[in-house]
Amino acid sequence: MPRAAGRYWLAGMSTSTKVPLAPGLSATLSFVVPESKTVPKLYPEAPEFQTMPAVFATGFMVGLVEWACMRAIAPCLDVPAEQSVGIDVRLNHTAATPPGLTVTVRARLVRVEGRKLAFEVSAHDGIDEICTGTHERFVIDTARFEAKAQAKAEKSKQPAPARG
Length: 164
What we know:
24% of the residues lie in helices and 32% in strands. By secondary structure, it is of the alpha+beta class. A 5-stranded antiparallel beta sheet has the order 1-3-4-5-2.
């Protein structure tokens, strides 16, 4: 079966059962912000965060945006053998959201360059638009990725070479 230009099937993927990775894929994800996702909870060991207002933390918002993007491409991947990792985040966090409000993230795949995927994203808390921006992800072979991470961890345990 010929593959359409601008579409990308992953190795080993059956074109009859998987959706092609192509611009236009989208997802909407809604999440009620709990107290545990506020700024003071971001790094409990950091005293600087402890005095901050208890509103939805930017760090947790980044994770929510990633989740929506992952959901948009889920029908295209052979999880867990194939997954995606975030490689670029460009978000404007423009309004504070207190716990209890529902944040809705919209993610739309706008570009596919091989295994590199680009998304346009936005988020709203029911009162204000709280985020707009872009996010890029890269499709990985999970076993290969984990092997490289393990090798790096092992390398970090070795003594540094002497400099001469």
